[in-house]
Design a protein that fits this description.
Helices cover 45% and strands 16% of the residues. About 4% of the residues have low confidence. The strands form 2 sheets. It has a 7-stranded mixed sheet. The longest helix has 21 residues. It folds into 4 domains: 39 residues, no CATH class; 324 residues, Phosphoribosyl-aminoimidazole Synthetase, Chain A, domain 2 (Alpha-Beta Complex), CATH 3.90.650; 34 residues, no CATH class; 68 residues, AhpD-like, CATH 1.20.1290.10. The protein is an alpha+beta fold. Helix 4 runs parallel beside helix 5 and helix 17 runs antiparallel to helix 18.
Length: 533
Amino acid sequence: MINMERRKRVMQRSIKLGHCICDPKQPCPCDVFKQKNICSCAGERLDSPAGPVQLTKLVEKAGCASKIDQAFLKQVLKNLPEINDPRVIVGIPAGDDAGIYDMGNGQALVQTVDVFTPSVDDPYTFGQVAAANSVSDVYAMGGTPITAVSILGFPVRKIPDEAMFQILAGGIDKMNEAGVAIIGGHSINDSEIKAGFAVTGVIDTDKVITNANAQPDDVLILTKPLGTGIVAFASQIDRANPESIEAIKISMTTLNKKAAELMIEFGAHSCTDVTGFSLMGHLSEMALSSGVDVEVIWDEIPLFPGVLEYAAAGILPGAIERNKESCGNRIIASEKLPQEMIDICYDAQTSGGLLISIAKNSADNFLKALHIEGITAATIIGEVTQKGSGLVNIKYSGVRQIPVAPEVSKEERRETKDEKKEIKKKAQEEVPCCADAISSANDNNESGISRIKSKFTEFLGAASSPQGMDAYTKQAMAIALSVAMRCEPCLKMHLKKAKEKGFSQDEIDEAAWMGISFAGSPAMVFYEQLKNL
């Protein structure tokens, strides 16, 4: 029931100010009021949408790829005032996974906070991932998490309310599994979904494991595969296969609890969890903080199913470039390594594994114990070679190769051709012609024309989206076709898009001359007149 008296009072105030009081960027009456007859400033609410929701489609950067890059953080944080409390054992300058505060009597608090956007579509699973990722920082330092406070950003009334409930339920269930009590929380009405936890743990002061104690002749063990960022990005653009999605889901919701307990038992020297700064980011930070150089054998790094294939197809998210910018100056990769393989090492991980530096004579027994406990992906990926300045050398044995697309046999080509003929035949039988589509709309009915335009726009989007060919190739084709057809608005638009995608002028010219080669001199004159606009 709308309270008209309250609505009138609130709207009069907004109209007088010239701004909506709940969103100063909007005038009053706002578009929502005009379209839905709802005044949110007066406490009136839109009905919550219903049905399933794919969370990764609602965010710009999935998972820990949404975090601010390491280089930028260091630049901003370097001038912060120093914290001179002697009870701070590990603080901001350490750049470690969590902070540690001495409580006296040999006991210390471990504190951390982690918040990020969805890396999976299912809300309940996202809540589990957020919880597992948040407690991981405490495990990485050898601590025991005991309490947590939830943090949630949620676009209220823009997606189903049930999604918010499921995110929190997933987080609670995973925290229960970790033996952590959720004692409160904080929520924000945000345009983009975010979830995480501030976690408090305890640790004995003489058992703290930091990222600054890797020692020469240690071996490096990684407990989970790499590639969550690549798979999440592939899923966002509908290029991921179900096996990859299921594999990262299982891994991201798996606690690092048992791996942490075993690393303490076997006397690990140093540890960090691998998350948003990538394997290279976290490993180079460990090497720098420890004053050592390390070596990694690329072929030994465990990967999720499909990751190598996605990388070969160019399905590499932007966080890779940001991580490369942050730590790439300390990475020395084998010249034999294809760039795609190197890029995987910079992939931002969400709820990744522990990267552990442990004495060589303890490594085999530690690894066996991990495998017995079901941590089967745990692998020795390299070693600490010497005292040094924090360099990471990536070696390549050539065992693992970039996949090559299999050749299609004549029989398969024939089957594909027959399938296309059958699809075309069905389309001709089932789809009415343009005249039928137009006549089915009411005469002078604008909604009918709008529907036709909408369908045509939908068709254009489907034809332009990457399928067998990537978006870069299709953009070059669009330039060539715009020139051949001499469509000025088309060419202007596609030149702009090409430059945004990073095309060089030579690449643009080459694409344009493909169109000219088909359309002749008039197309050449047309292109020369417009190419510099």
